[in-house]
Amino acid sequence: MKLWEILRTVLGEIRHHKMRSMLTLLGIILGTLSITVMTSLLEGIITTVWAGFADIGYDGVVLVLNRGARDLRESAVFARSEGLRPRDAEIVLARRKLVTAVAPVTFWEEIVRNGSVQRKARISGVTPSYATVRNREVESGRFFNEVDENSFTRVCVLGYRLKNRLFGSEDPLGKTVKVGERVFTVVGVGKKLGNQFVNDDDFIEEMEGLYVPLGTLRKFYKGEAEPLDALAIKTGEVERLGDVKAEVQASLKIAHRGAEDFRVQNIAEELLRARQEVTEEIRSWTVVLSAIAGVSLVVGGIGLLSVMLISIGERLYEIGLRKAIGATDFEIFLQFLSESVILSSLGGLLGIGGGIAITKWAGSFFRSGLPIHLDGLAIALGTALVLGVLSGIYPALKASRLEPVEALRSSA
Q1: CA distance 1 to 206
Q2: At CA 300, angle to CA 298 and CA 301, rounded to 5?
Q3: Of the N and C termini of the chain, which has fewer Cβ atoms inside 10 Å?
């Protein structure tokens, strides 16, 4: 029997036993649908979560903060230091072994106005290196350069939300805003930070604020005598964060004349721990969802096996007749095995189609959509084919071993 004849027979069986065929295929459809949705959903979630972690901007970063004296002895020692200063960044870079970039940061709060619209916002004074250290990008325009920093230029980069609140859909580039009583030119707009899986108050505060050059903020607002609020220090040697921390402490202790009036927060290590926890959680969900898909497929396989056995019982006359006119055991075996594989493949294709439709629909809830995971489609279809072979072997063997006379007599 040729392949198209087998296919025609299978389709005829499905047409004549619609309900039975649908119930048979239901398990395989649900199983392959689960695999398709699960792999695409997990891929989308993993991509979104890691993008959110990248937005946090603390990969390979240690944070240096000011620290107050705990007793009179420390007060006496700390008096020798002026606290965190912009020149500390130069000293850390000059002595660097593992450090790749340093971003001094200081903050201020001020009313920001565009015409009659005004908002109280956090002003972040940063240098051009801040974009590199904190992995910050602009949605439009540009970030600061050395000329802006050295010449105390009154330029600013608006946070994503602040731009929408002050300008709405209008393009703010080249326009001016008032920060307090001083006029600043907008040169850039920051990208949106975070997503539905990774979001916190820092993201909101940053997007509701704006950046100005560090020198400008210190000269016109906070005062050049005031210490910085933080130094963000980046390394490419993420596995050596302990050594980076020690290197930074040694450099700053020299810069502060022996006073350890700062604390180094190993925030990259905390982020690494958070990543490991998320990885474990994703792995657990993968096991749970795989088990659900596996159970559906096993049920589908048992259903397929049962239907093939019933089908043989109903087609004894056909088997006996074919053998009587010359069909070999192998041809009978191949016929029923092919029917089983075709049935499971149809179920697999229907499941994959349903899975793609659900994935497309679910993708509308994700900022970057959900990718169709091609490996997942291959696994789903491959599993359906294997299931078809495994479920068809026994019924096919049983049919092929029937004697023609016995089969014709049993069908009478």
Answers
A1: 71
A2: 65
A3: C
